[in-house]
Amino acid sequence: MDKQDKRYALGLTFLFLLVGAFTASHHEMWRDEIQAWLLARDSTSVFNLFANLKYEGHPGLWHLCLMPISRITHSSVVMQMFHLLITGVTVYLFVRYAPFNWFQKLLFCFGYFVLYEYAIVARNYALGLLLITVFCVLFKERYKRFIWVGCVLFLLAHTSVHALIVTIAIGIVLCCEYVFGGRFLRPLNQEIEAVEDKRPIWIGFALIGVGIITAVLQLNPPSDTGFAVAWHFNYDANRANNIVKLISRAYLPIPRPVRGFWGSNLLTTYSLFQTIQILLCYFLILLSTLLFLKRPTALLTYLISTFGLLTFFYIKYHGSIRHHGFLFLAFLMCCWIYRDSPAISLGETAQADKDSAIDRVLNRAGTVLVTLLLICHAIGGIIAVSMEHRHVFSYGKLTAEYIKSQGMQDFPMVGNKDSAVSTVVGYLQEPRQIYYPRSGRFGSFVRWDKTRTPSISKRRVIEAAKVLSSEKSQDVLIILNGSLSANQIEQYNLSFLVKFTGSVVSDEGFHLYLIPAP
């Protein structure tokens, strides 16, 4: 049976990597993917990298992984390959060790988050998914391998702010389980007492604590940060309802089969679903609570993770589907560790028989729930992959290829809007900087500080290009997100070169103009 499980895991992983590699070859990376690559590539040292990361709102493990790769090659495609490999390892570990049936594992591998969001879109979240999976693998023998558990959770805290919240939840629950659980849960007490040397356990807890503290310190923004600076502590019923609705987005991620599929949800287009959406979200939380009720470790991990994430989305940053996915990852993680969590038992025969009957009903309900959710995820994954093949995700890649084909890659460049134009810079490969009028400086990646203005007129962009052209005595390439009027083109003696419009990421289409040297 073990050989069959291993073969099944290898087979599914191979199939996943084939589908993923084919899809990734059709995926044009967008600004958030390229931003991480540029930060790793153009930071002069590890200390300089962490100084630049202060404005990002995420810890730096992903960027640290990219830094040595960026020293080997300037092609960001290598980042895509590395990212897909990370998810491939996750798929193998899940299929090999997760306590789900073969059909549920198949659905998981080709679900929306695994197949698309955390495999094709190259961000730091894939590392979080991998480390959560490794934690689940270690959970069964956690007290025998607690230093390894501590190492995994240390790293998990440094992948993203959302993974940090999950790490905090796991750390709190493991601490409560170890300190208090042995008094009330006899099997757990025996397991803890079987560990003769308790020092590795305390070392593991120390690693978890240090990981959380150092990640929080990284997330402390500088005083001049200009991104997501608001906090929402006042109660707002509409905002609270919208945050609760994220449960359905995370548990049922079925995008619309249109060009703007990314971040959309097909179910919300139906009035009936809109009517029942909030009730459905509360039902999912209630049902999950009932499923985990007899296993305090799984229950508390689920509740603290879920409400921790929802609280963050409410008070700080609403986020996007890639962030909301951690709500589902927390649920699935608790389904995995449920069987190896100590159970509450009253010990009386009649009550035990009654509990056993209830357990059977809940287990069947849990199996049905997980299967139905994973079917929805698989439908979402298929739609996302098919839309990725059909539409251009971002025109940053094609714009960079056009610039190189015309021999203009060495021209001075002015770009607006900077966050979108940075995608073009990443695909130009050679380390270079262009002038960003929004912040009034040269750069490659975007620095989210207060020097950067929210918007700038096209006239000011042209004026900046004109000044640069005079200083360099060269033609200057202007990269814009929108078109210029005929009057502006004539007034400044510009040449219109080409436009690329109609991408999945709507503001990553580009118009190119050339301003002649004086």
Please give a structural write-up:
The model has no long low-confidence stretch (mean pLDDT 92). With 518 residues, this protein is mainly α. It has a four-stranded mixed beta sheet with strand order 1-4-6-5, sandwiched between helices. The chain has 22 helices and six strands. 63% of the residues lie in helices and 5% in strands. The termini are far apart.
Give me the oligomer status: single chain
Order of helices and strands: HHHHHHHHHHHHHHHHHHHEHEEHEHEE
Q: Termini separation (Å)?
A: 76 Å
Question: In this structure, how is the largest beta sheet organized?
Answer: 4 strands, mixed
Mind telling me the C-alpha Rg?
25 Å
Pairing-aware structural class of the strands and helices? Answer: mainly alpha
- Beta-strand percent range: 5-15%
| Strand elements, count | 6
Please give the order of strands in the largest beta sheet. Answer: 1-4-6-5
Poorly predicted ranges (pLDDT <50, ≥5 residues)?
none
Name the shape in a single word.
elongated
How much helicity do the residues have?
A: 55-70%
How many domains in all?
Answer: 2
How many helices in DSSP terms?
22
Q: What is the average per-residue confidence, as pLDDT, rounded to a whole number?
A: 92
